[in-house]
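Quick check before the chapter quiz. The format below is the same one you will see on the exam, so make sure you can read both the input and the output lines.
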Amino acid sequence: MAMKIRLARGGSKKRPHYSIVAADSRSPRDGRFLEKLGTYDPLLPKDNENRVRIDTDRVQHWLAQGAQPTDRVARFLEAAGLREKAVRANLKKGEPGKAAQERAKARAEKAAAATEAPAEEAPAE
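Here is the expected output.
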């Protein structure tokens, strides 16, 4: 059975509250889980200690059993010191779109032409 440590959403509309749970990867997001491992309240300030609460002993138990955390839960575990910080590179996200790249190229060509033109027209004395 493939195990995941993931978030299960609770709370009302526009007021999210998440439980950090150990669940079978085939079960639905808010469906059946084996154990509740903590909570996450995204509405609290980032410096509040109650924003993310994790039962570290049980998380370590499930990690030892082979459970894989989702990306968001892995970040929580890294912040808590339960997991090594992974290197993440989202290279496509930081690149500008095609139109922006074309505008930047045109601007660079225009600037290069502008700097070359006055140098050629300068009279020699």
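If your answer matched, good. The mean pLDDT is 88.
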